[in-house]
Amino acid sequence: MKVTYIGHSGFLLDTGSAYFLFDYYTGIIPEMDKNKPVVVFASHKHKDHFNPVIFGLADKYPHILFVLAKGVPYKNLAVEFSEYIAAQDKIYPGEFRNILLIKKDAKETVKLSSGQELGIMALRSTDEGVAFLLRYNGRNYYHAGDLNIWAWEEETPEYNRNMEQKYIKEMEKIKDINIDIAFVPLDPRLGIYAYKGLETFLSYTKSSCIFPMHCWGGYGIIDKFIEKHPEYKDKIAKTTYENMVFQLPLQET
Description:
Blueprint: E1 2-7, E2 10-14, E3 19-22, E4 38-42, E5 64-69, H1 75-81, H2 83-88, E6 99-102, E7 107-111, E8 117-124, E9 130-136, E10 139-143, H3 157-172, E11 178-185, H4 196-204, E12 206-213, H5 220-228, E13 244-247
Parallel strand pairs: 3-4, 4-5, 5-6, 10-11, 11-12
Antiparallel strand pairs: 1-2, 1-13, 2-3, 7-8, 8-9, 9-10
Helix pairs in contact: 3-4
C-alpha cells in the first residue's frame, strides 16, 4: 500500500486495487493506472481543500468517482473542467452520474467500477463540511478535512471548551473502529492548542498509522509532537516535503 503526500491536506492513497485522492488543491498528482477505480474526495469548499481542476481528471481516468461534501460547488465547474462529465455522464440536466454529494452524518455504500464496495461515513466537521471514514476491502481509512479542535489563544475559554466538546462528540462515533490509515490536522497556527486535536484523536481512536496534515509547511511541528508524545512515535508518519512517498506494510484483506 502506498501513500503520497501531495501537499497541505492533499494525499493520494493507492490501496492496490483502487486510488483515493483526498482534498487536493495544489501540487503534482501522481500518475495512476487508468484501469483501476479512482475516487476523488473533497471535504469542503475552502480553497486549501478543493480545487475545481480535479474534475479534469475525468478526461484521463475513465473509472472515476467524485465524492463531494454537500456545499462543494460542482455543476458549472464540472462542465468547465471536464467535457467527459458534461457530455457523457448526465443523468438529467445539472446532475452527473459520477459525482456523489454527501451530507454531514450520512452513510453511503457505493460500488466501484471494479465491482468492489466502498463504505463512506461522513462525520460533522467542527469548521465546514465533513470528515470521511472509509471502509474498503477490509481496511478503514480516515481523512479529517477540517474536523479538528480549532481552539485559538485569542478566543474565550468558553469558545475553546465548546470546540473541544464538539470534536469529542464526533470522536465518540468512531472510537470502536480500527483505523488503518488516518490523515489528521496538526496546525501550528493554533499555538499552545496546536497538539490538542491530534492528541484527542489518538486517545479516542484505535489508529495504526497517522499522517499529520494542514501544517502550512511547518513540518517541524510533527517532530515537536513526537518529542512531546514519544509513545506515539511508531504511529506518526513524518511528512517533510511535497510528493513524499510512503510504502506501508499493509495489504487489502
